[in-house]
Amino acid sequence: MFKQKILVSITLIAAFLAGSGVAGASGPIGFDLGGQTCDVVWGEELNPVIGTALGTTAAAVAESLAGGQTVGELANTTPEQLALQSAITTYRLEKIEEAAAGGTITAEQAAQLTKAVPLTVDHLMTNGGGPYWGLGMIGGRMWGHWSPQAADALNLTVEELAGRLSGGQSLGAIADEQGVGGESLVDMAVEKFEARLEAAVENGRITQSQVDRWSERLAKGAARLIYQTHPCL
């Protein structure tokens, strides 16, 4: 299970790095900003699944997540939690089966993805949500992981942070308005990613030389992303 968590972390970091090189206008800390749109929009498919499990609408789900809640927080009781987890698991397994049947992935890849489903669903329940939900490769899957610390650093509640992000402000602009500065948020993001990378090194999943190369890109990627109003990974 721990090895699976490391693999998920590496996958998310790889997506973060791949999505961070977006060109655009120059930001306050000297990196290019992006004005891109997301080619992948997956919330439109998953929101109805969540809504059906909870007896509400897809629109209500989207609104609650954009307001700062995580997927797991949408369920108010243990039975709702279990129903939600089961619904998302079924959805994920069906998608894997469809991809294998259509030749998009191999049978071996399907087996690996199926094995990881319990972990990915648990991660989505705990961390998925926020204003960037459903966009791009990561699209809010990490919201619950970083938003409490970011909100605390900005002297805001998670709900206040989500509201300002949903209103069109970038994380960096909010930091500047709060007198915190974007650099401190970049440092926080890099520290969190590097901790995951170091754990991967200790478990032999990647090498220290890879960490050294990625660390510089992480800083640049984070600096770009925090000044995008709708970062899409």
Quick rundown:
Helices cover 64% and strands 0% of the residues.
Provide a descriptive summary of the structure in words.
- With about 230 residues, this protein is mostly helical.
- The protein has two domains: about 1-35 and about 140-233, no CATH class; about 40-135, no CATH class.
- The protein has helices at about 1-20, 45-55, 60-65, 80-100, 105-125, 145-155, 160-165, 170-175, 180-200, 210-225.
- The longest helix is centred in the middle third of the chain and has 24 residues, at about 80-100.
- The protein starts with a helix and ends in a 7-residue tail after the last helix.
- Residues about 1-35 have low confidence and may be disordered.
List descriptors:
single chain; 233 residues; mainly alpha; 10 helices; 0% strand; globular; disordered N terminus
Distance between the first and last residues' Cα: 26 Å
Q: What's the order of the H and E elements? A: HHHHHHHHHH
Helix content: 55-70%
Biggest sheet overview: none
Total domains = 2
- Rounded mean pLDDT is 81
Question: Low-confidence segments, ≥5 residues, pLDDT <50?
Answer: 1-36
Radius of gyration: 18 Å
Structural class: mainly alpha
Topology, number of strands: 0
Number of helices: 10
Query: How would you describe the shape?
Result: globular
Beta strand %: under 5%
